[in-house]
Amino acid sequence: MTDGSTQDIGERLEQIDVTLPAGPWKLWTSCSYRRISGPRGADGGVLHAYKQRSDGHPDLSMPEEQLQALVDLRNALPAVREELARLRKIESLHAERLPSRARSTQQPAEDVDWRDMPEAP
């Protein structure tokens, strides 16, 4: 993410979404080991640990690009939460400015000029 704008956050999340394996995912913990499986494919087909045949070292089954997308997703969460809080604040400000009759029907009041609404902090 570059500037933290809504558009930038959305574009980055879209990129992450198309990079990661299709969901929904499920965490499986049976047989004494943990793995993530998707709707199709092998048990642990999304992510599982294994031992490298070449040197016996542990590794993860997910390609590096997908692992980076998981890291990016985790790192994007603060910006996503911040943006959601900003949008909730805007919704709250709009709701406060609506006359009670408009609030009860969830219809915008004709006498409210939305361009005059303050930006959320």
Explain what you see.
It is a single chain. By secondary structure, this protein is mainly α. The chain has one domain (6-101). It has three helices and four strands. The protein has helices spanning 6-19, 64-97, 100-105, and strands at 26-28, 35-37, 49-51, 58-60. It has a two-stranded antiparallel ribbon. Strands 3-4 form a two-stranded antiparallel sheet. β3 (49-51) and β4 (58-60) form a beta hairpin. The longest helix has 34 residues, at 64-97. The model has no long low-confidence stretch (mean pLDDT 82).
Task: Give the end-to-end Cα distance, rounded to a whole number of Å.
Answer: 20 Å
The dominant shape is: elongated
Strand residue content: 5-15%
| N-to-C series of helices and strands | HEEEEHH
Estimated helix fraction = 40-55%
The number of E-state strands comes to 4
- Which stretches of 5+ consecutive residues score pLDDT under 50? none
Q: How many helices?
A: 3
Give me the secondary-structure category. Answer: mainly alpha
Order of strands, widest sheet? 1-2
